[in-house]
Amino acid sequence: MYAVDTEVVIPKYPLAANEATGNTMLSVNTANCSVNYNRADFLVPHRKDYYFLVFVKQGSSRHWIDMKPYTIKPDTLYFSTPQQINLKEEPKPFTGLSIAFTEEFLAMHENDMVRNLPIILNPHNGHQLDLNAGDLVFVEDILNKIYYEYHTKQNWQQSMLMGFMQILLIYLSRLYTAQFNNAAQGNERILLQKYLQKIESSFTQLHDVVSYADMLNISAGHLSEVVKQQSGEPAIVHIHKRLVLEAKRLLFHTDQSIKEIAFMLGFEDASYFNRFFKRLVNDTPVAYRTRIREMYH
């Protein structure tokens, strides 16, 4: 039996640098009765390696998320998370605003609250939020503020953007909770969420899948199979991503030495931490800290 690389079968697209700003972690764009996709992207199942929000003012195109088709409705917000599979079916024009942001952008926040919001974790594997008249006024207003701030270079721009984004994501999480509160979850989806929650509470102490399987009272093989099926990524990748995210936060927000950060994350050997970080980020911790601080300070 031959192993199949799912990243080859189902490609994962990174966030392209914004044409107007060059930003590779946050992109904010409007569409005015236009098609913002390449025709070659249609009918190609893929994952986005970033979070994606689209407010549709007008439009009627059709697309799929995982195994479910959606026909675009006006005055509706659509969202996707990195583990979901996307397929665009109809290249019809739409009017609205889109925001794309990466894990690295979320890491810029000083606490875990934003990253743990329902709209980010998406425990119900949702995609569509219906907006009433009051929601519509609030969402359009904050989206317009984000668009203006993003495309107008001013002092403290990053802080303003992060503040506006936090407000938007909290508001959307309230809508998410209200809309999906009674939705049923399959046992396997629940297991994935429990696994991610265990990682969140123990990633600085436990770096292997077996330890988390023991905490959940199941075999490591079964956990790995379910996590891969539900998220599209091996179970160990989720542990590694959480470690890298925290390392990036500490490198950006603190002046701790690399050795101190390694110890805080549960690495006994700083040189091994350096190799681990470089393998996953393609930058040494020192180089990453220099680059990210030059970008935002």
Sum up the overall morphology in one term: globular
Largest sheet: 5 strands, mixed
CATH H-level name of the largest domain... which superfamily?
Regulatory protein AraC
Rounded to the nearest angstrom, the radius of gyration is 20 Å
Number of helices: 12
Major beta sheet, strand line-up: 1-3-8-5-6
Structural class: alpha+beta
| Succession of helices and strands | HEEEEEEEEEHHEHHHHHHHHH
**CATH topology descriptor of the largest domain:** Jelly Rolls
* Average pLDDT reading: 87
Number of domains: 2
CATH C-level of the largest domain: Mainly Beta
Please estimate the helix content: 40-55%
Alpha-carbon distance between the termini? 52 Å
The parts where pLDDT drops under 50 for at least 5 residues are 1-8
**Number of beta-strand segments:** 10
CATH architecture of the largest domain: Sandwich
In what range is the share of β-strand residues?
A: 15-25%
Tell me briefly what this model is.
The chain contains 12 helices and 10 strands. The protein has helices at about 5-10, 105, 120, 135-150, 155-180, 185-200, 210-215, 220-230, 235-255, 260-265, 270-280, 285-295, and strands at about 10-15, 25-35, 45-50, 50-60, 60-65, 70, 75-80, 85-90, 95-100, 130. The strands form 2 sheets. A 5-stranded mixed beta sheet has the order 1-3-8-5-6, with no helix packed on it. It has a 5-stranded antiparallel beta sheet with strand order 2-9-4-7-10.
